[in-house]
Amino acid sequence: MSDSSAFCPPGGAALDDLGVRLHDGVGTLRVWSQNASAMQLVVFDATDLDWEVDRASLERRPGGVWEVTTDLLQPGTRYALQVSGPHGPGNTFNEETLLLDPYARGLAQGVGYEEWRSVVIEDGFDWGDSRKPATPLDRTVIYEGHLKGLTKRHPDMPPALHGTYAGLAHPAMIEHLHSLGVTSVELLPVHAFVPEPRLLERGLTNYWGYNTLNFFTPHTAYATEEARQAGPEAVLAEFKGMVRLLHEAGLEVILDVVYNHTSEEGLGGPRTSLRGIDNARYYRQQPDGAYIDTTGCGNTLNTATDAGARFVLDSLRYWAGEMRVDGFRFDLAAALGRDANHEFSREHPLLTAIRDDPALRGVKLIAEPWDVGMGGWQTGNFPDGWHEWNDRYRDRVRNFWLSDIDYARRASAPVGIGGFATRLAGSSNTYSDERGPLASINFVTAHDGFTLHDLVSYDVKHNEANGEQNRDGADMNRSFNHGVEGPTDDPGILAARRKAMRNLLGTLLLSAGVPMLTAGDETGRTQRGNNNAYAQDSALTWLDWELEDWQRDLRAHVAALIRLRGENPALRPSRYAVQGEQTPRASDMDWYDQHGETMEQQQWTDPGHRTLQYVAATTAGEVPNRILLIVHGTESPIDVTLPTAIEGATRFIALWSSVDEAPSSEERAFAPGDVLPIPGTSMHLFRVV
């Protein structure tokens, strides 16, 4: 980690203070454009965004920055830019187009789809005594959810707060988060975004929000009606108020951020900001001006330029500093790490700058470590200090509990337990010793894909409601419907699905690494088989708070598992253990078969051997703690003999079992050598004493 005196952001001092800065009764606006030949500030009436009231010219400064200082820029001023420049490949200047300031802290929308104006904001907020929780990574449990969907139907808060920033911070929602034991709320995009025109034409919208209009402004539609009517300053204050209340409750706020592309889409798409300011420098292009699209969204932000990289870094600084956000999950993060040749580089200056920037010290950095371009899959290949969504973990865990079981019903299990065990123990085959198991953000589901309930209830996707003839969404889901596609009244199938959900949740919350739970999975929320519900802003995607008994039981399992994870540090190693060495903050791991004997090499890959006993123990100098986890990965029951070779072990205290419909409070004790009847496809956790 660099100190503040040594750190130099991309572009250096020449790119400092972009956007509007208020001082001495005036405002200074600075905008970067290498290729522009002229730039105008256009000021509009506060209530009629079509009524121009004044304008001023910006002058070119060193480094491609255009600047004006004027008393036209006051708190609340509505303004836009008009930019002139040369024509030719890569350039798309149009001096008549009204453009947003990329660094605008506030936005106002007029009548038309592209009728947006930037708004001057005077920063400031009473944070009181609230502080960032700074939850250690080994104790972090992430809860990924949609800002609106989390509270839209919550019965215990005023309707005016449904689906809003204020709603997320309501005591009823905080109580739910506390009851689960999660530490960090990861919100789908809340940067100002717009739906794509093609969705509007079909009567749909962009619900998830991965179509950013501006990287410095919270999405207005998520504010209460009162705040929206009061204006951008009130929207900003509501967002900050949400963060303050969540922090006071000990909860972190992580934002899913979409810096890889913008809502301007491909050439010919909406022209709202960067395309009109300096298209040739802000977007990745071929020499003839054709876009290089590694995101699948029409354009890719060019972070190989200082201005593009600095744009991202400055936005992060703003949200982490002024807005006090605790972390970021970077959508399609491989796109940010592509160099001037459009190839991914692990030591890309932007990736290392984000990690080393003193203004971002202590901020959690989570990469979605892929994009859709050539060489875009980079799981395990981000720099030290970064954490990654571990899709290898997701796929292996789904295979073990679902597609392998499906296959075994027709033949026999296709693989042994070795790959699953590697994921359970922290994915040491994916992350370096220096990064350790906490580099892995473990997940079984996410916003994108089947919900947990649908993962065990559908073999194929059912996305007809999206209007794309079911062509959208992933075809490979590694799911298993357990005998019937979708809803059923068969009690045996329903019981098997519930146990499969408990096995998946148990694996997630007892694995080494940082677990991420998708909101609603704790109660078995369904999207009726839609595995790409990005365009569905309806009850299909909102959390349902009216629960059946089995859903309450499932939620109790999640709360119990998170509590047990916190109580047993052996489940939360920060480093990988090294055979024969004492490694601080690691967990010593031993592996036994169903007979209580040490696992032999051939057993790891034997498809006929899918039962193991996993012992994890804190290393010397740490708080003493040992656990035993039994994993049985076939549908046939089996007898398991508890190990006798664990040094000093006298008892095994039962803590949790996926067999139970509701978590049991009975802590039964067993002795080394006891034989336990283990039902098919199940997990069982013990404390070793």
UniProtKB/TrEMBL annotation:
Residues 119-565 form the Glycosyl hydrolase family 13 catalytic domain. The keyword Cell membrane does not apply. Belongs to the glycosyl hydrolase 13 family. This is Glycogen operon protein. Its EC number is 3.2.1.-. Keywords: Glycosidase, Hydrolase. One of its GO terms (biological process) is glycogen catabolic process. It is an enzyme of class 3 (hydrolase). GO terms for molecular function: amylo-alpha-1,6-glucosidase activity. SUPFAM superfamilies: (Trans)glycosidases, E set domains, Glycosyl hydrolase domain. CDD domains: AmyAc_Glg_debranch, E_set_GDE_Isoamylase_N. PANTHER family: GLYCOGEN DEBRANCHING ENZYME.
